[in-house]
Amino acid sequence: MKRTCIAVLGLMVVPSGEALAQRSAVEVARAYREAHGAEILRDFRELLAIPNVARDSVGINANAAYIRDRLAALGVESRLLRLPGVPPIVYGELLVPGATRTLAVYVHYDGQPVDSSRWSNAPWTPVLYDGALEAGAGRLPFPEPGEPIDPEWRIYARSAGDDKAPIGALLPVLAAFAEAGITPTSNIKFFFEGEEEAGSVRLGRYLEDHRALLDDIDIWLFFDGPVHQSRRPLLTFGVRGVTGLEVTVYGSNRPLHSGHYGNWAPVPGQMLAELLASMKSRDGRVVVEGFYDTVEPLGELERAALEALPDYDGQLKEELGLARTEGNGASLAEQLLLPSLTVRGLASANVGALVRNIIPATATAALGIRLVKGNDPEHMKDLVEAHIRRQGYHIVREDPDQATRLQYPRIAKVTRSGGYPAARTSMDLPIVQQVVDAVREAAGDELVLVPALGGSLPLYLFTDLMAKPALIVPIANHDDNQHAADENLRIANLWYGIELYAALFTMAPGQSPVQDR
Prior knowledge:
Blueprint: H1 19-22, H2 25-48, H3 57-73, E1 77-81, E2 89-94, E3 102-108, E4 127-129, E5 139-140, E6 154-156, H4 165-180, E7 187-193, H5 203-209, H6 211-214, E8 219-222, E9 234-236, E10 238-250, E11 256-257, H7 258-261, H8 268-277, H9 300-307, H10 313-320, H11 332-335, E12 340-347, E13 358-359, E14 362-371, H12 377-390, E15 394-396, H13 402-407, E16 411-420, E17 423-424, H14 430-443, E18 448-450, E19 453-456, H15 460-465, E20 470-472, E21 488-490, H16 491-505
Parallel strand pairs: 3-7, 3-8, 8-20, 9-18, 10-19, 15-16
Antiparallel strand pairs: 1-2, 2-7, 4-5, 4-6, 6-21, 10-14, 10-16, 10-17, 11-13, 12-14
């Protein structure tokens, strides 16, 4: 691929110390946003209107082409990396003559599937409101150029927060730099994935196949996720991994009349409830043997960051209507540094208007396991299976036949899902501290540093497979209804993203930790 340098992109190189001393890149980006706010929102609306579920090949390829073309129009040498039948990677480069450091920006442009019946508006018809819907906000027309914009307004659409928000903030930064003649202080490589919400199944293959493009990267910046629940800016140094399993328990080989067979035939719903209850104590601690044994402890800087976090749990409990939380008084931040076991779904016949007087033949639970640094996904599932066996269950992988039913009094079918491990980057790396300093330029003293995010990303492919540090740099509002109906982005968070990315792209030059390129 032709490797284009900024010097030939038609951008004026700013003399060292001169213009930037008078006007920082953050100020330039802010001024551009103030002058072009309506156009930025309309461009964002255009991107959000393209359906982006990974399995929708037409929609997902339309997203990729749109992003590639917008990057190219702003001077980024961009193209699509492809595997057969897989959403493409949008790859781009801005190479700066004399730069000693290369930043990589990761964004995923696919989104979660939707149940349109649960949305207040069509999920891919972006709508502007003057606040949060749950607070009774009213609908607004998108502003015309020059009209004032209230930062408390919100755009409602699928992927408004997760994860098209960074694209909506990043493109204006590139436009502002081109207009003002600002050159980044680092080489920048863009890597936009289209399959993250579908499990990033082929991401490792993409990284291996294109290692030659990526080996000179010094640090990966993941533009994804929400800011702190207090609305304060956030920088996090790791993520939890994820895996899970589905458990089905069996009663009779057909549903039975609850009057004729109640008090005699086993009730799968009751059996499953008892099995699930045996996995956690009343205060929420997982009592599966060995569940916490492989947790990797925090370092000194990580522990200090944890202790410096704002005490926001009380306000969060009030916001969420919770009189109690799990963990026996531990903070949310502390709990996110431990593996979790969550019942994600339960099913056994019907409730409400469709309930019948039966003893169902089966009951099923979907269990999610969030992993922290040190946990192996397969080992953690092994521990849960061992616990199920200790409760007297014979485990099968397929529905049991009649002979198996007659041989074992308690049977559980366990279906294991995939997943990936957690990842965490050390906070004491010099290049990490450079990023922290740059984020503070946009965020100020309000910046919150968190050792690990509660959600999951395939960060381990970058920290382990590619052997490079990786940080999460989120901008979305914490109450963006991520993955749910009425997903949204608060305009103030989009504005913050513009200033944040301007600071990162022009952070103080530093010696690259990679000596031999």
